[in-house]
Write a structure and sequence with these properties.
Belongs to the aldehyde dehydrogenase family. By secondary structure, the protein is of the alpha/beta class. Helix content is 37%, strand content 21%.
């Protein structure tokens, strides 16, 4: 019988069913494992070790040992290692995209874009590694000279999500390695094979043993997370996921040791279309921002606010494009597929609950609105809802699915108030041709990232992160490395002796 994964890869050796600790692919000492399924077919793709605290501690020890020497590696050598990793990711892009589609479900076209995005962080941080600078500061004390240097924080625990299994690894690990740190990655139970393949390529790139470790777990996720947050050897935690879990991790990090923390948490992004907007451009922006990865991204607009004077035309054009341009299915077996399944039943049930709640309170379905059981158990039609109001669950809860909910508004002041009426603040979008309004609204939105007349804001060159309960810290850009560094001040005294007296 043909293997469900290896036969689909050009390089079958990229498919790893173990965890990676200190340069070796290892099983769990307990012998336990968990299955990984294809969300498009429910087929079992393979198994990964159910690691626990014991294996996590071993990975931390390996990372600590590797850090002792790597911290003194030259910036140029770090850059060369990251560049070799980048080259291998690029060379194996097709296999990586196939793995993403198999275990995550996103369309192959989306998966290929993710691999390119993932590689771009390795390229970016390879360029940034030699540019970690300090300062020379004129002291107020006579005879003193002050300077600052940046030092790596040490061992970092990276807890990554299932929705971008390749890109979130490189966005975190690329910055950590560029800064001179070592990492222990807790991969998501839904999508471990993509991360394993990425780390195998890091291994082939010559990244020293112990610098990058991967611990796999599903049922033991909480135990592994606790091992990372409680270890005094781990100096930094970076987490992408829900606000609820982020708060738990933050609390745990303060119970035993104080650690640097970066949290990229949930969103409830507003997408605003003002009366002076280019409607066709706004519709295109809505398509690109809302329906990428079937709406399973933290920066997807959850609430589309459209001025009442252009509401009907915007909603009609959006629904028409969704109905005519989208093809839902399994892109590994069907050509032309633009959108795949949701990740699992819990995700689909939340989407369905939000749609039913909205319809029961007066919303109209302009496109989609239902499951596609003939395709599989996790497929849901991309949906456009009109006549939304703030009493509906969609207004306050992140859907994380392919549902565009379109709300009316009358004034700029009203839409700013409604947009900010949430505890989270990751991303926000708006479309307007008025340059004065652009500055007003961009400053008024309580979010960490704003897209003006665009639905695409993610870029390795830009700082990614939120405010309020969407977390803190930034990933990507030159600021991304700062999250993995600490500043040391050095004051030199005794500089008052006259040179003349020494001649």
């Amino acid at each position: 019988m043909a293997h469900p994964v290896r036969t689909k890869l050009r390089d079958p050796s990229l498919f790893k069913e173990n965890a990676y600790i200190d340069g070796e692919w290892v099983p769990a000492t307990s012998g336990q494992s968990f299955k990984v399924q294809n969300p498009a077919t429910d087929e079992v793709l393979g198994f990964c070790p159910e690691m626990s605290k014991k294996e996590t501690d071993a990975a931390i020890d390996a990372a600590r040992e590797a850090f002792q020497s790597f911290r003194n590696t030259s910036a140029r050598q770090k850059a060369r290692l990251l560049r070799r990793w980048y080259d291998l990711v690029t060379e194996n892009a097709d296999d990586l995209a196939t793995l993403i589609t198999l275990e995550n479900g996103k369309a192959l076209s989306d998966a290929k874009i993710e691999v390119e995005y993932a590689a771009s962080f390795l390229e970016w941080f390879s360029d940034e590694a030699p540019r970690i600078y300090g300062d020379v500061i004129p002291a107020t004390v006579a005879g003193n000279q002050v300077l600052t240097i940046r030092e790596p924080v040490g061992v970092c625990g990276l807890i990554t999500p299932w929705n971008f299994p390749a890109a979130m690894v490189t966005r975190k690990a690329g910055a950590a390695l560029a800064g001179g740190c070592s990492v222990v990655i807790k991969s998501p139970g839904e999508t471990p094979f993509t991360i394993n393949a990425m780390v195998e390529l890091a291994h082939r790139a010559g990244i020293p043993h112990g610098l990058v470790n991967v611990v796999t777990a599903l049922s033991n996720t909480v135990k592994v997370g606790r091992a990372l947050t409680s270890s005094p050897l781990v100096r930094k935690i970076s987490f992408t996921g829900s606000t609820r879990v982020g708060k738990i991790l933050m609390q745990q990090c303060a119970e035993t040791t104080l650690k640097k923390i970066s949290l990229e948490l949930g969103g409830n992004a507003p997408f605003i279309v003002f009366e002076d907007a280019d409607i066709d451009a706004a519709v295109a922006g809505a398509i690109s921002s809302k329906f990428r990865a079937s709406g399973q991204t933290c920066v997807c607009p959850n609430r589309m606010f459209v001025h009442e004077s252009v509401y009907d035309i915007f909603a009609a054009k959006l629904a028409a494009r969704v109905r005519s341009e989208f093809v839902v299915g399994n892109s590994l077996t069907t050509s032309g597929v633009t959108h795949g399944p949701l990740i699992h039943q819990a995700a689909l049930q939340k989407v369905e609950r939000h749609v039913k709640d909205a319809v029961s309170k007066g919303a109209k379905v302009l496109a989609g609105g239902s499951r596609l059981p003939h395709l599989g158990s996790n497929f849901f039609l991309p949906t456009v809802l009109s006549d939304m109001d703030d009493s509906m669950q969609l207004a306050s809860e992140e859907t994380f699915g392919p549902v565009a909910a379109v709300f009316r508004f009358k004034t700029e002041e009203e839409v700013i108030r409604r947009s900010n009426d949430t505890e989270v603040g990751l991303a926000g979008y708006f479309f307007s041709k008025d340059v004065h309004r652009v500055w007003r609204v961009a400053k008024a939105l309580e979010v960490g990232m704003v897209g003006v007349n665009t639905g695409v804001i993610s870029d390795p060159a830009t700082p990614f992160g939120g405010v309020k309960s969407s977390g803190f810290g930034r990933e990507g850009s030159r600021y991304g490395i700062e999250e993995y560094l600490s500043m040391k001040m050095i004051a030199f005294g005794g500089n008052t002796t006259s040179l003349k007296g020494r001649l």
